[in-house]
């Protein structure tokens, strides 16, 4: 009797076995027809063309639909007290993993600690902790050690003067940050704007360029420095959009895909004529609008040069950087910059294989035909669980 009870309890607690069959599977930007994916215990148990459904499995017929790995946003921010909502919104948009690049508090670390489970139904998160700010190398090393003790996934610094409005971190300080972070085996992501700062940070050992170069076109030296250690380049085109788009009412406010998750109160504030007029007159709006044009040129040059590009947005840092929707907008803008849909999908996902967590998106329409078809979401699964 006790054995029967334990068996029944185990069955009740077990995750459902699911077979998604007859899909066009787009993995690493390449499409394969009539693929089935078997999900067991939250992970991919098999990928193939002729997989039979195990007894009791839920069968999802995906004929005529397009199955992809979940989208990964390599640069976002979660805000203290709003983490749970943000991770759910990202998930509903098919952004199944996010890398939060600074400012995360205990709750974000707790969410990260709880995500390697078959019951997960919100986005995965990786964290940087407090952004390192310091005036001297010794202060920098002490702050890195303090953050490293919390076991983040990376260290983040800013090497930028915000269009000349604030002091820039000194080279001897960010070099100390990088040295100390590497002692703790942590990569360093650098917020940059200027080409020369990016190159100097790379020479100092920076591991991630967290924004586009926006002051001028990238050159052969930059490309060589990036290729030397296969450094990720994260364009964050939508970060610039958020700096000037609300000088009028942007077209995307009318997009039902946007409206479904956007906070109406934030939208109403951004439609306020006084706020729009102020943004139109802002020197930051003008500066970052010019920066976006350069960023698009540099993204195409980086892709043509074979650099490692990862989709990211800087979304979530402020209410006007709409998490989830901005990731799709970023992908569409990457295509506008001259990238093929297959390239955009490679830069926005990670190839899936047997044994990986079953973080998947099912689309009604083919994003290889039109990248804007990323919005035709049928279902999102995280660890094999339907996102509510």
Tell me about this structure.
With 388 residues, this protein is an alpha/beta fold. It has two domains: 1-70 and 349-388, Urease, subunit C, domain 1; 71-348, Alpha-Beta Barrel (TIM Barrel). 37% of the residues lie in helices and 20% in strands. The chain is built from 14 helices and 16 strands. The chain has helices at residues 2-13, 83-92, 106-113, 137-148, 171-183, 195-203, 220-228, 237-244, 256-259, 264-270, 273-281, 283-304, 325-336, 341-348, and strands spanning 18-27, 30-40, 43-48, 58-61, 66-69, 71-76, 95-100, 124-127, 155-158, 188-191, 208-209, 232-233, 308-309, 360-363, 377-382, 385-386. Strands 1, 2, 3, 4, 5, 14, 15 and 16 form an eight-stranded mixed β-sheet that branches. A three-stranded parallel β-sheet has the order 6-7-8. Helix 6 (195-203) links the parallel strand 10 (188-191) and strand 11. The protein is globular and about 65 Å long.
CATH topology grouping of the largest domain = TIM Barrel
CATH architecture of the largest domain: Alpha-Beta Barrel
Q: Uncertain spans, ≥5 residues at pLDDT below 50?
A: 1-13
Helix % is 25-40%
Number of domain modules: 2
- Mind summarizing the main beta sheet? 8 strands, mixed
Number of discrete helical segments: 14
- Spatial separation of the terminal alpha carbons: 37 Å
Approximate shape: globular
Query: Which class best fits the helix and strand makeup?
Result: alpha/beta
So, the CATH homologous superfamily of the largest domain?
Metal-dependent hydrolases
Classify the beta-strand content into a percent band.
15-25%
Which whole number gives the mean pLDDT?
A: 95
Based on CA atoms alone, the radius of gyration comes out at: 22 Å
The first-level CATH class name of the largest domain = Alpha Beta
In total, the number of strands is 16
SSE order, one letter for each helix or strand: HEEEEEEHEHEHEHEHEHEHHHHHEHHEEE
């Amino acid at each position: 009797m006790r054995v029967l009870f334990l068996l029944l309890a185990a069955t009740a607690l077990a995750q459902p076995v699911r077979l998604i069959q007859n899909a066009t599977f787009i993995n690493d930007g390449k499409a394969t027809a009539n693929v089935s994916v078997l999900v067991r215990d939250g992970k991919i148990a098999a990928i193939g063309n002729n997989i039979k459904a195990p007894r009791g499995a839920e069968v999802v017929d995906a004929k005529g639909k397009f199955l992809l790995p979940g989208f990964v946003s390599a640069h976002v921010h979660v805000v203290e007290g709003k983490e749970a909502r943000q991770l759910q919104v990202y998930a509903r948009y098919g952004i199944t993993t996010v890398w939060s690049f600074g400012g995360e508090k205990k709750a974000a670390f707790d969410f990260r600690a709880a995500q390697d489970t078959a019951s997960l139904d919100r986005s995965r998160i990786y964290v940087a902790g407090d952004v390192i700010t310091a005036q001297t190398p010794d202060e920098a090393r002490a702050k890195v050690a303090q953050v490293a003790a919390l076991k983040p996934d990376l260290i983040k610094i800013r090497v930028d003067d915000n269009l000349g409005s604030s002091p820039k971190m000194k080279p001897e300080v960010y070099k100390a940050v990088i040295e100390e972070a590497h002692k703790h085996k942590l990569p360093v992501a650098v917020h940059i704007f200027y080409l020369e700062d990016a190159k100097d940070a790379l020479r100092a050992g920076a591991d991630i360029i967290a924004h586009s170069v926006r002051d001028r076109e990238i050159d052969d030296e930059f490309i060589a420095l990036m290729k030397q250690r296969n450094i990720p380049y994260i364009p964050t085109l939508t970060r610039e959009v958020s700096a000037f788009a609300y000088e009028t009412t942007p077209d995307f406010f009318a997009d039902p895909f946007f409206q479904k998750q956007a906070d109406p109160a934030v939208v109403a504030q951004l439609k306020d004529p006084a706020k729009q007029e102020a943004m139109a007159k802002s020197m930051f709006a003008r500066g970052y609008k010019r920066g976006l044009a350069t960023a698009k040129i540099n993204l195409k040059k980086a892709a043509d040069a074979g650099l490692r590009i990862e989709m990211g947005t800087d979304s979530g840092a402020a209410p006007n950087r709409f998490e989830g929707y901005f990731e799709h907008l970023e992908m569409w803008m990457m295509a506008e910059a001259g990238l093929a849909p297959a390239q955009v999908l490679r830069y926005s996902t990670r190839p899936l294989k047997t044994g990986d967590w079953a973080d998947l998106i099912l689309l009604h329409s083919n994003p290889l035909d039109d990248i804007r078809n990323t919005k035709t979401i049928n279902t999102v699964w995280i660890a094999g669980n339907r996102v509510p």
